[in-house]
Amino acid sequence: MTVFGPTYEEMLRPGKLPAELRKQALAARGDELNSLNLFNITWRDEQNRVRHVVLPPALTGVEANIIVLLGRQFPSGSHKVGPAYATLMEGELAGEIRPGESTVIGPSTGNFGIGVAYIAKLKGYDAVVIMPEEMSAERYQRIRQYGGRLDLTAGSESDVILVLERTEAYKRDPRNKVLAQFELLPNYRFHRYVTGRSALEAAADCGDGRVAAFVAAPGSAGTLAAGDEIKSVFPDAAVCALEPRECSTLFNNGRGTHRIEGIGDKMVTLVHNVLTTDYVALIHDWDCIRGLKLMQEAEGAFGEQFRPAAGTEPALHGQFGISGVCNIIGSIKMAKKLGLGRDQNIVTIATDSFDRYPSVIEEMERKEGPVPESLLREWHQTIFLAANTSEILDVRPPAQKQRLFAQKEEVWRRFGYWAEYLKRMQSQSFWDAEYAQIAEVDRAWRARREL
Question: How many Cα atoms within 13 Å fall on the side-chain side of residue 26?
Answer without folding.
Answer: 14
